[in-house]
Amino acid sequence: MHVAAPTRVVVLSGIVIALAACGAGARRQAWPPAGPPPAVVKDLQVPDNPYRIIYNPPVNLAKPPDTTAHKRKPGS
């Protein structure tokens, strides 16, 4: 039974350290809002509308792909 006492010490120490690191469950208040964002930040934000999503039309897999853009140029 020489192992029981050190094991308890290790377990209790771990619990105490974990509670101390987590603030023992104390809830802190959130920072109050600082006000509206500056104009520089507003310029960088994405406008909230459905047109901001990039649209790619569906591809018809039944027809062969268009390879006209990949042909060699004459004389090269």
Helix/strand layout:
Layout: H1 4-21, H2 39-44
Query: What is the H/E order?
Result: HH
- What's the main sheet like? none
The share of residues in extended strands comes to: under 5%
Number of strands: 0
The overall pLDDT average reads 76
**How far is it from the N-terminal to the C-terminal residue, by CA?**
88 Å
Cα-based radius of gyration, to the nearest Å: 32 Å
- Helical stretch count? 2
Judged by helices, strands and strand pairing, the structural class is mainly alpha
**Helix content range of the residues, please?**
25-40%
Low-confidence stretches: none
| Form type | elongated
Account of the protein in words:
With 76 residues, this protein is an all-alpha fold. It starts with a helix and ends in a 32-residue tail after the last helix. The protein is 32% helix and 0% strand. The mean pLDDT is 76. It contains 2 helices and no strands. It has helices at residues 4-21, 39-44. It has a domain at 3-55. It is elongated.
